[in-house]
Design a protein that fits this description.
Subcellular location: Nucleus
GO molecular function: DNA-binding transcription factor activity, RNA polymerase II-specific; transcription cis-regulatory region binding; zinc ion binding
Largest sheet: 2 strands, antiparallel
Keywords: DNA-binding, Nucleus, Transcription, Transcription regulation
Oligomer: single chain
Radius of gyration: 28 Å
InterPro entries: prtT, Zn2-C6_fun-type_DNA-bd_sf, Zn2Cys6_DnaBD
Number of helices: 29
Low-confidence stretches: 1-14, 53-142, 162-187, 622-688
Shape: globular
Pfam families: Zn_clus
Number of strands: 2
Length: 700
């Protein structure tokens, strides 16, 4: 036998070919060239042969003598537990009786995950996306009741400033195929470190805030989670990796396991309740951090793999929850409340956990519906509407109280919608059959109900809250949903009044002057609500503001949408309502804040901030490099606005070159033609439609 220099000597057991079971056990694989191998034949196990990288690169491996093979035991073990559970296999491509997690199917799953250079095409071609076109053409309706926030963001994002091109990420060959050797180059010890980092305390407190169905105790023992709750470990680490600089390589390797896990949940449900709950929690982590930018074209955003696509994740988790009968979980909880005298222990039961999970899915369905202007897939029923009363006297952690507050707010909106057609059906064209007086009366009652709700849940730190265990110091999300709900409802009133004003103008009705004044007040009210919602994070104390880096992407998207609402209101009504210009300084402050939130691979806050800044500069006609005065806005500043402030000098539109976005001169002749005006003309036309441009002259 020819001698081999020491530097080239093969490592013992580093066979060019070996099955995954032998690699996991770090044993020599006999007869791997003609499977099944001797060990798998003896145990009756399915023999899956995986080529060894070490066999192909012995020279590189020789410098690391004594280390385990690069195809680690961690990545080869089943994801749900250390023991293989065939009843969890569920993958259509697996043969009957095969193990649940098979490395040979990973390249196939990964190829499906990135079939095209960008997942945008896949997202736009999904059946659900046909419900809302990418560019809404519905005129006459502002905000949520005309086009979804994501449609507005997408429309604005696809039109950069003149002479500029959006930076686009170029995908390399390694990005389009996850099955190559590059993915498998991360050593086991590094992968373990990332999994431990994903479940350790620092990230647990920041990331899992957006996943209230997971308690701190669920991840307090990282080693146990890694060994016995593998899907949860992988999914938590995958989300955490986007916030850790230099983690792109490890994130890609985790992606293969996460994608495979999502596909596996389409198969038979596990018989073990603990395994089922682990899978539900793992899906919740992914669902809470699903990207918003794959619903619309956000240039510069990283592509989303197919299994983690927005629509795919939503379908997967809701279908899995329905198959697990979470929608009937209230039955088991009611039985416990009826027969158990030890109420503190109820919050530790599986029935309680499943019911809270179902309520959380209902809130997520509502938020998704608002952002995409599609009907919610989980509608209000008695199991949801009775949640607050059912759990009123049950001791519970603050994360559960937060879910109940969102349910209560959602029910409040739904009840108001029964009195005003279209108020709670933002995906439909609103009806105008009600009189202005009737609509205003209902919306005034709704405004009062929102104030009562805020006191009930201690939103402003009220000492006499009617709901126990409300920790607003930790539940800033409750305040955000309150502000966003108030903003959405105010835009409904604004749209309704502007439409009625235009109709009165067309008919030359005597009520038109009175409607104009009411519409002015409504526009200012909705802009003020948008301003408050956009600043929900900016006005937080510095220590709490740090947590904003780790929130889900939808929060950033909604803040940007509120800013765009203010910008377009200023474009259309700035001449009639000079006070609107005073909000532009706050818009720039919010945009700058978003750009500073980016961390590691989580770059979407910067993209939303840049998008907002571009639209602000177009709307104000500023020269490149001009900046607004750094002015810290407070709630008192807004209250003191008297409606007569003018646009700050640094934000005034430049009149040079005729770059006015909105003509301030009304045409002569019949005033009725005001309702038929074309969109304002100029070198910088309106880029997106929140308001109908023909409303611009109505408030003069």
């Amino acid at each position: 036998m020819t001698s081999v220099p020491p530097s080239q000597k093969p490592l013992l057991g580093a066979a060019p070919v070996a099955c995954s079971a032998c690699r996991r056990l770090k044993m020599r694989c006999v007869n791997a060239e003609n499977p099944p191998c001797a060990r798998c034949l003896r145990t009756g196990r399915r023999c899956v042969v995986v080529p060894s990288r070490r066999g192909q690169q012995q020279s590189a491996a020789s410098s690391r003598k004594g280390e385990p093979p690069a195809s680690s035991s961690l990545s080869n073990e089943p994801l749900h537990t250390l023991d293989s559970q065939p009843n969890l296999s569920a993958a259509p491509s697996n043969s009957a009786g095969g193990p649940a997690w098979n490395l040979t199917m990973l390249p196939q799953a990964q190829a499906r995950a990135l079939q095209s250079p960008s997942s945008r095409t896949e997202a736009h071609s999904s059946p659900a996306n046909t419900l809302h076109p990418k560019h809404s053409t519905s005129p006459g309706l502002p905000s949520l009741y005309s086009s979804s926030p994501l449609d507005v963001l997408g429309s604005a994002a696809t039109q950069p400033s003149s002479g500029e091109a959006w930076p686009r990420q170029q995908l390399t060959s390694r990005d389009t195929s996850l099955g190559g050797s590059w993915v498998n180059s991360v050593a086991e010890d590094i992968l373990v470190e990332y999994i431990e980092l994903g479940v350790q305390c620092s990230f647990r407190a920041k990331i899992l805030y957006c996943v209230p169905v997971i308690d701190d105790a669920d991840l307090e023992n990282p080693l146990y989670v890694i060994r016995r709750r593998r899907p949860l470990a992988y999914c938590t680490s995958f989300v955490a990796s986007q916030f850790i600089p230099g983690s792109a390589n490890v994130r890609q390797q985790l992606l293969s396991h996460v994608s495979d896990f999502v596909e596996t949940t389409n198969g038979p449900l596990p018989e073990d309740e603990n395994v089922l709950w682990t899978q539900l929690q793992a899906l919740a982590v992914l669902y809470a951090y699903r990207p918003a930018a794959d619903v619309f074209e956000l240039p510069g955003a990283a592509p989303t793999p197919g299994p983690l696509n927005h629509w795919v994740l939503k379908h997967s988790i809701e279908a899995f929850a329905l198959r697990a009968r979470l929608h009937r979980s209230i039955d088991g909880l009611r039985s416990l409340l009826l027969h158990s005298s030890d109420s503190p222990q109820i919050s530790e039961t599986p029935a309680f956990h499943k019911y809270i999970y179902w309520l959380w899915l209902a809130t997520m369905s509502h938020h998704f519906s608002v952002m995409t202007r599609t009907p919610p897939t989980i509608r209000e029923d008695s199991s949801i509407s009775s949640a607050v009363d059912l759990l009123r006297d049950v001791p519970r952690p603050s994360r559960v109280t937060r879910i109940l507050s969102e349910i209560d707010l959602y029910i409040l909106w739904q009840h108001a919608g029964r009195s005003v057609p279209g108020l709670a059906e933002w995906w439909c064209t609103p009806s105008d059959t009600m009189s202005v007086e009737d609509v205003q009366a209902v919306l005034e009652d709704m405004e009062g109900a929102l104030e009562v709700w805020s006191q009930r849940w201690g939103l402003r730190g009220e000492p006499k809250t009617t709901v126990a265990n409300v920790d607003m110091a930790r539940n800033g999300a409750v305040s955000f949903h309150f502000l966003s709900t108030r903003f959405c409802i105010s835009t409904f009133e604004t749209r309704y009044l502007l439409e009625k004003t235009r109709s009165a103008l067309d008919e030359d009705a005597t009520s038109q002057p009175g409607l104009v004044q009411v519409a002015r007040e409504s526009v200012l009210k909705s802009v003020k609500a948008a301003h408050a919602c956009s600043r929900c994070l900016v006005d937080l104390p510095p220590l709490r503001r740090e947590f904003a880096r780790y929130m889900a992407e939808f929060g950033y998207a909604y803040m940007a949408f509120c800013c765009l609402y203010i910008i377009q209101a200023y474009e259309l009504f700035g001449s009639a309502l000079p006070a609107l210009g005073s909000y532009l300084a706050s818009v720039e402050e919010v945009a700058t804040f978003l750009t500073e939130l980016a961390v590691a691979s989580n770059t979407t806050p910067r993209l939303y901030g840049d998008l907002t800044m571009r639209q602000l500069r177009r709307a104000t006609g500023r020269m490149e490099g001009a900046r607004v005065d750094s002015h810290s806005w407070t709630g008192q500043d807004v209250e003191n606005m008297d409606g007569h402030q003018v646009v700050p000098a640094s934000l005034r539109a430049s009149s040079a070159g005729g770059e006015h976005l909105l003509s301030t001169s009304a045409p002569s002749g019949d005033p009725g033609v005001l309702s038929h005006l074309n969109p304002p003309r100029g070198t910088s036309p309106l880029l997106f439609s929140i308001f109908d441009p023909s409303w611009g002259p109505l408030l003069r």
